[in-house]
Design goal:
This protein has 15 helices and no strands. It is mainly alpha-helical. It starts with a helix and ends with a helix.
Length: 303
């Protein structure tokens, strides 16, 4: 019981930290691609050190057949971050985050085509109501955000598509799990993002002021490195359903930060849309069967 309480506390802390990501990203004046690259580098260094200190060896012999999948999932994770960071630039943190949380809905729709899983009434209802939620989040003109606001939502949905891709690819990765998988995905993201940044923008670390450096280190080391270690430590002790429920602290904190810290507006229709997305995706995820718990654990490892 004590271990479960400690794990629950660690997971809550992890989700709260994840929820503040947009606040820090907003204050780092570099391109989204460059930020994604530095986030991956800092996190990989910290998690790599953690693995060495805890003597957790990566079973390369057992996973060599899955390295291509790890590479592709790492690429998807990197571009997932880029699009999410772009979403923060064009719309509010709350709208970007809620758009991003459409990813589980995409997975639900993709599974029948990829894994021959049948969609029942519950899955169809969750898909339809979550889609209605996305329509409501566009604001229907309430915020007057215009083209930039819609662009931000599209970037958020694009990030959700890449996030869903990572979730689906992880379903094929059987011989490496948890923090080992994420570490290798970070390495794959770094390999791809270095040439991407070189071709699309420039390396501008030298132009960062002290404030930018501090926020960059927080995003890379705290939001990614330290929080991932806390997150995977918690998952070892918690049942999948409890973890699924606690994971929704993340978007709720993001909305709170957006409205009460950043002072960003959110309309009634967007609040209702957010509740539709989070409520119906949560209802879909807390299926009491073991496969759903396994899917949850794998899906939440690449925030």
């Amino acid at each position: 019981m004590k271990k479960i309480k400690e794990a629950r506390f660690l997971l809550i802390i992890s989700m709260v930290i994840f929820g503040t990501l947009g606040l820090f990203v907003r204050n780092i004046p570099i391109s989204s691609g460059e930020l994604a690259l530095y986030r991956a580098i800092l996190a990989a260094l910290l998690i790599g050190s953690f693995l060495v200190l805890t003597r957790q060896k990566i079973p390369f012999g057992a996973i060599k057949k899955e390295l291509p999948l790890l590479l592709f999932s790492g690429i998807a994770m990197g571009f997932n971050w880029i699009l999410l960071f772009e979403a923060y630039k064009y719309t509010t943190v709350s709208v970007a985050t809620l758009s991003y949380y459409f990813a589980p809905v995409i997975v639900t729709i993709a599974c029948p085509f990829l894994f021959k899983e049948k969609m029942g009434f519950k899955q169809w209802l969750c898909f339809i109501m979550s889609t209605v939620g996305i329509v409501l989040i566009t604001g229907l003109g309430d915020l007057g955000g215009g083209k930039a606001h819609l662009t931000g939502i599209l970037f958020g949905l694009g990030a959700a598509c890449f996030y869903a891709t990572v979730i689906l690819l992880n379903k094929f990765i059987k011989n490496v799990g948890g923090i080992h998988r994420t570490f290798l995905q970070f390495i794959a993201a770094i390999i791809v993002l270095i040439p991407y940044v070189a071709m699309t923008s420039h390396f501008s670390l030298g132009q960062l002021a002290m404030k930018g450096w501090i926020y960059l280190l927080i995003v890379g080391l705290v939001h990614t490195g330290i929080t991932y270690c806390l997150y995977f430590s918690a998952l070892k002790e918690l049942p999948g359903q409890k973890a699924a429920i606690l994971s929704y602290i993340d978007p709720l904190v993001a909305v709170f930060i957006s409205v009460f810290v950043l002072g960003e507006a959110i309309s009634l229709s967007q609040m209702i849309g957010g509740l539709f997305i989070l409520g119906f995706t949560l209802w879909n995820e807390i299926n009491p069967t073991a496969p759903m718990e396994e899917k949850y654990v794998k899906s939440r490892s690449n925030h």
